[in-house]
Amino acid sequence: MSKPDFKKIIAHCKEYGYIFQSSEIYDGLSAVYDYGPYGAELKKNIKDYWWTAMVHMQENIVGLDAAIFMHPKTWKASGHVDAFNDPLVDNKDSKKRYRADVLIEDYIANKVDKKINKEIDKAAKRFGDAFDEAQFRATNGRVLQYQEKKDKILERFTAAMSGNDMAEMKQIIEDLEIACPESGSKNWTDVRQFNLMFSTQMGALADGSSKIYLRPETAQGIFVNFLNVQKTTRQKLPFGIAQIGKAFRNEIVARQFIFRMREFEQMEMQFFVQPGTEMKWYEHWKAKRMQWHRAVLPEEKLKFHDHDNLAHYANAALDIEFEFPFGFKELEGIHSRTDFDLGAHQELSGKKLQYFDPEKNESYVPYVVETSIGVDRMFLTIMTNGLIDEEVPDAKGGTAVRTVLKIHPALAPVKLAVLPLLKNKEALTDKARSIFNDLRLDFNCQYDEKDAIGKRYRRQDAIGTPFCVTVDFDTLEDDTVTLRDRDTMEQIRIPISEIKSRISDKTDWRNLLAEF
Ligand code: GAP
Predict the structure, then answer these.
(1) Which of 215, 218, 264 has the most ligand 1 atoms within 8 A of CB, as the residue to mutate?
(2) Which pTM was predicted?
(3) Which of 202, 238, 246, 420 is spaced 20 to 30 A from 355 at the CA atom?
């Protein structure tokens, strides 16, 4: 078994109708993607998995579908107009544009962390079972030297970022002698802040007064509707509002396929709590969200990462990271956002956004714990984790390689393929079609009669279809079919009347969410 490299995963997504580059016939639009027929199904299933877990399974969380356009003051209050920036730097020779913070972070990862890890790996090999990593880190001269260098860089970097000191950012790049990864040139422009929000004009006026933004996060639609939702659903604290929707960011460097896009989709939940209880709920959602991930992804590919730099609105924040083909990276953010957003909207709008607590007999602005995950990023974890090349026996007694997308059956775009053994035998195709027509209301099925049966199995493997049933001549005699399992390739004979319950058992949300 082997893992296809990232290029092959991207090619697979295109070949099997999962993801296409946007506007491909015009050479594409950078960092914008379209989801094809199977991609649209998988994306819908990921969203359903989240919605079922976060809304239907939670008595005190309700859903919302707010508009993408919001009053421009929303983004002033939230801090996005003034502070939703990335530090941008251009290389004068290669004309390539970079995020200055990423250049520095990459330097730390490649030039310092890698060296520390090399020393640790060497020592671990030398000392075997007796190796104590913590002690080695605390005492080894070389590791201590590297660590000191890293701490110094981080201290300068953190101060420059939080103090909005772009001259210092450039100085750090120069002092570290960071070169352009494309050209090797160290000829940099000044570092300047770049706001990530897309803007457009509402109505016919093209003056500043009609400028509005495409939302860079869905969360603000929840905040401004906090009282509408609380009153109409008669919720008491603590309670949550969940939403799935598009968000837009003019990312400076959009790379790594659907990992960083300019148009993407978020699944966000704001949990409103009594001030002072936020850390309890932060821990609660940290555990719950990890449980949600572990149900469909391997534990060893997931980890928590506490933020070194807290955003302007947070008093605690972490990422759930996943090991993508390009390393551990953020998959989901969990943030304790205090009363920052509701407080800011209350101040700028002049409208009270307070909760009347009947037990305390007082009104206050609730605190908020947020969980926020990108649908597309979750999609990428499912694809990169699930797609494998596997050696299997071939018909001639040798071996062949099959590419199979091993994703959880509940998330699979197509649950069942119904295949007549031969396409030119009407009795077989009629029977297969009648099974297909009977089951398509229960789950997404596909009827396929083209090509030899082995080729059709391989195609369903590549799409990720967990089950195939084959209708053959015995079916016409005894109403049984062959049921083939995608992962084991095992084939068993079952009555037609059992197909529905067998597939439902494996594809039911209960398999993932009974304990949630
Ligand atoms: N409301 C908080 C918020 O938006 P964030 O960390 O900026 O926080 C949350 O974004 C999640 O949205 C990320 O963990 C990631 O999964 C997804 N996300 C953010 N920017 C993205 C982008 N440019 N492309 C794809 N997904 C993105």
Answers:
(1) 264
(2) 0.91
(3) 246
